[in-house]
Amino acid sequence: MAMAENRRRILHYPEDRLPGRCQTLDYAEAVQLTNPKDPQLQGEVDDKYQYSCANIDNRVHGWISFNPPVGFWQITPSDEFCSGGPLKQNLTSHVGPTTLAMFLSGHYAGQDLVPKIRGGESWKVVFGPVYIYLNSAAVGDDPLWLWEDAKIQMMNEVQSWPYYFPASEDFLKSDQRGNISGRLLVLDKYICTDLISANVAYVGLAPPGDAGSWQRECKNYNFWTRADGNGFFTIRNVRPGDYNLFAWVPGFVGDYKFVDVVKITPGSYTELGELIYEPPRDGPTLWEIGIPDRSAAEFYAPDPNPQYINRFRQYGLWDRYTEFYPDADLVYTVGVSDYRKDWFYAQAPRKKEDNTLQGTTSKSVAWFREVHTN
Predict the structure, then answer these.
(1) Which partner from 54, 63, 126, 144 sits 20 to 30 angstroms from 187, CA to CA?
(2) Residues of the chain with confidence (pLDDT) below 50
C-alpha cells in the first residue's frame, strides 16, 4: 500500500485481524499482530487511522500487487467538495485491501462536520469525480515503479481539473467557473514596521461566515491554495457564487477574513490586489511555547513504546506521558525550558494502576526581573 513518499508499506492480510492472529489494543480499530501469515510482520500495530491524510494532500493512494506487478490507485484531483477545509483529515487506504474516497466525515471533529438537512431544505453538491487508475509492469521490473507512475498520472489529472466529460449540468466546466488572485501581506508592528510577505499562507474561498468558519463547513464547496514565498496566490476554477476569502499564515496567530464578499461569476478573473492581515495582539510577545502553525510537530514526541512496532503514526505514544509524569503534571518554565524537549506534544490523561484515566493540567511559569530606570 502507498499513499505518500514516507507512508508506503507491505501490509498484512485481512485474516490477520481475526481472533487468534492479533490482540485488540485500546480501541477496536487498533490491533497488534501476534500470529500473522507473514512472520516478518510479527508484533506490528495495524490501525486504519495511521493512513489518514489532510484533504489538501490527499491526491493519490492505493495498492501494488507484486506478482504480477499491478497497481490499483485512487486519484482525487480536487478537494473542493470535501468538508472541513484543507487540513481536515480523512481516511485513505488500509488493510482489506480497502481504498476509500471520503468526501464528508466527522472523524477528528465530531458533530460540527456532520451535515444537517432541515425540513424543507434543498441541498445539492457534486462529489467527485474521482479517477481510478490501473497500471502494470513487466515481470522482473521493480514494482515500486508503479507508485512513481501513479504520481505522474495524478499530476496529469490535477492539471485536467475540472474534467470536460461529465454530462451532468451540475458539474461545471472550466469556462463556467471563475478565477481570483491577490497578494497577502502581514502587518505586525511589534515584529517589523514594514509589511511582511505571508509566506506559504493557506488562502481559500468558502461560504460566508465568521473568520475561521471554513473549518466547520460541510454542506458547500470550498477552494484552497498556498501562497508563494512572497504572499502571491491564485485560486482557479471556482464555482460561481458568493464567498468570503479566508486565510491563515504559519507563524502568526489567528484567522484572516477579507472584509468584502467575493462574487465569482462564470469566466471572471478577479484581482484583489494587496490584502493586509493584522494578527490580533495587545502588545509585544513576551514569550511563547511552540509555533502557531496548527501542528504539534515542533513539540516533544518521545520514542514509541518498544513493545509496539509502528510504521507511521505511533500507536500508544500518548501513554508515555504517564511514564514521564507519573505523579505530577509537567511544568514549563519560561526562559529555562525548551518546548522541543520539555513540552509534550499532546495533553494526555494519566493512566492509573487500575487502568482508569486521570485528567491532567499542564502549567507554564514565567519569571520576570523588575527593572528600574531613572
Answers:
(1) 54
(2) 369-374
